Amino acid sequence: MNSSVMSGFSVSALPLDVTTLRSALANPAHGGFCAFEGWVRNRNDGREVEGLEYEVYAELALAEGETILAEARERFGTIEAVGVHRTGTLQVGELAVWVGVSSPHRDAAFRACRYIIDAFKHRLPVWKKELYLDGDTQWVVCSHGSAETPHATGFEPDYSRQTRLRDVGEQGQARLAAARVLVIGAGGLGSPALTYLAATGIGTLGIVDGDRVEASNLHRQTLYTAADIGQPKAVMAAQRVRAQNPTLSVKVFTEPLGADNVVDVFRQFDLALECTDDMESRYLSSDAAQMAGIPLVLASVHQYEGQLQVILPGGPCLRCLWPEPPDAGLLGSCAESGVLGTVPGVLGTLQAHEALKLLLDLPGRRPGELLLVDLMDTTLQRLPIDPAAGCALHGGCADVAARALEARSAESDLERAFDSLAAAVSAGFHLVDLREADERAALPSGVDALCRPYSSWSADPFTAPASGPVLLFCATGKRSNAAARFLRERGHAEAFSLQGGLRRLQQMHSAREDALHHPPTGCSASSACRHA
């Protein structure tokens, strides 16, 4: 083995030197060490094996291997991790794959090692040819279990039912294979959208989602299972679509996009789908699509209804329809308003369908209108969008988008991130809880906070303390962001919003508990809440 391979993931054509690999994990602060060694065995499925031949798509394997190690570090905390996979011809008894992990504690080392080797098995683009004693050979796709596949052409998805369509054909399929599609949100809308885009042969998918899987997601977010609860959605979604179509390239973004990077990310793709239940994210995506010059497919759901809008560069855009985002207190998320699981399934599928129409230049594309979908009586209604009522009054969609992004960038210091509300108190912040009484009863904050429901602000505007920073918080950060902006506009320069709201704190807490292998303890059962 090349002695320069000391850390991270690598592929080696030479025998593995375990001593060298183990030395990369040496850390005086680490007391736990775990390693996995995969050896070439002499039998497989009842047949005697003479050896194996591994073929690795090296460039993709190196990138994916490093991604897996990074996921393990994020999930299991302070660890050192090394992985290496052989390539070429190996004899019975040779070491084919090695994974080592060191950690301050043995439990994290054990679980991280298991996580890494399982991810390597299912996600690395590795093929092995079984060399049998009777002279027969057989290729097996290692990265996807024991599924056999012809090696002559690698894994080849069968798109024959699709290419038989006159408007698709082999040329259209090639266009899909070259396409790059960004999906913002891997939840109720994103799950069907990602599934169908991967299945139809999109070449590259980008997945943006900063949330983790929750039990309440499973009735509508069909990419996930109960075993995924607590895991990052973007990471798990990427695993699912890769398993569905191994030829797919996936880019994962586990943090929400912001004004500082959204346009650069959009420019990496040919088309974007907005699949969140966050109005701020929809406006950000609409603005970014205008600046990047790519189409955007928007959808939203509410209980039994949904809306769909296709935006082309130059508009009409979202701001042509609603020049400014509605007040955060007027909008209900799925958590607040409820939703039947099939509704985002239908709308997300429509988003994928509109994306394919754009990529394949199919007839029937109707930008410049809002499609209303009522799934209680199964009716569709089309509303034309008049740009003269919105962006056309202010210089056009691109000019309005540029100004909006500039203004949003100027507000980049509006949010503050903390590991807990107690940490914010220790940092000298006055805390203001904007949630309604039923929300506070369902999830007490556990700290002494001034309770001022955001719904009462219009009738009774909140007055910030004369001195000291104020941290406003709600369930998801939407209302607190609007409230902080409200206070800033009225001269209180030290008004801040808790980034991601209490949901983010819950997810961080669950992730820490998972890393320590303790059952989640939830939030504090009591809180002191004073009323003005």
Structural features:
single chain, alpha/beta, Rossmann fold, Oxidized Rhodanese, domain 1, 3 domains, eight-stranded mixed sheet, six-stranded parallel sheet, globular, disordered N terminus, ThiF_NAD_FAD-bd, nucleotidyltransferase activity, Molybdopterin synthase catalytic subunit, nucleotidyltransferase
Task: Write a short abstract of this structure.
Residues 523-532 have a biased composition (Polar residues). The chain is α/β, with parallel strands linked by helices and 532 residues long.
Description of the structure:
Helix content is 33%, strand content 23%. It has 532 residues and is of the alpha/beta class. It has three domains: 8-144, Aldehyde Oxidoreductase, domain 3 (Alpha-Beta Complex); 160-410, Rossmann fold; 415-531, Oxidized Rhodanese, domain 1 (3-Layer(aba) Sandwich), CATH 3.40.250.10. An eight-stranded mixed β-sheet has the order 12-11-10-13-14-15-16-17, with helices on both faces. A six-stranded parallel β-sheet has the order 18-22-21-19-20-23. Strands 3, 4, 6, 8 and 9 form a five-stranded antiparallel β-sheet that branches. One of its GO terms (molecular function) is nucleotidyltransferase activity.
